[in-house]
Amino acid sequence: MEREAGSFMKPILDTTVLVTGASRGIGAAIAKRFASVGMNVVIHYMNSHEAANEVARQCMDFGGRIMTVSADLTSKEQIERMAQKLKDYDMIPDVLVNNAGISHYGLLSDVSEEEWDHVMAVNLKGTFLCTQMFMPGMVSQRYGRIINVSSIWGISGASCEVLYSATKGGINAFTKALAKELAPSGVTVNAVAPGAVDTDMMSSFDEEEIQTLRQEIPAGRLAKPDEISSLVYFLALPESGYINGQIISPNGGWLT
């Protein structure tokens, strides 16, 4: 008898999670959150080898299987090699967190075609390629979670961040459409769209700009990475299977 979509509940200790861009910031916090309950975690990075290893060492303290893997997510060939490595080590993900991304700050009139293509490739194409690679396994077992890390700017847009906002708006639309496509197969697709988070991505802002942001946010502060990782973890749980196609924005009341 064919298993009903969404009826399968994979045990936590048998669940494998792939977090892209997990060597620092929100991605590292997400990896550690999943590891803390004993899930198997794959920590993806591109160039930050030592930082990824440090995150892995912290994750190993919790006792689950931990693996690091490097790949350029704009390259289908490198993603295929990454997928083969995960298959070889029996670490094919049941949960995919598309977190890897880069920021861009500046007037649209100053954006070069090369900059546009690069940011689009990392933020949007990378999400597409990773999802396309790993969703067939989820569909096959009729269970899976895909969680895309977006941004508040993908919802509201931001002056001087048109390129970045466009990529995150694309991720939001991608999320909503794919959720409808995969729902009959028991796979949910959601996006977490944080407001300002205290990570390295804020390094382009000076202290005066950060203080202005704090004043604009009703909570009066930036989010901590752990606050974002807790939401990602919740969406990945088996019991969260009826939450699908949603763009959830933890932003301290900044955008309501």
UniProtKB/TrEMBL annotation:
* Gene3D superfamilies per UniProt: NAD(P)-binding Rossmann-like Domain
Q: Which SUPFAM superfamilies match?
A: NAD(P)-binding Rossmann-fold domains
A Pfam family in this protein?
adh_short
Q: Which domain of life is it from?
A: Bacteria
Q: Which family does it belong to?
A: Belongs to the short-chain dehydrogenases/reductases (SDR) family.
- What protein am I looking at? SDR family oxidoreductase
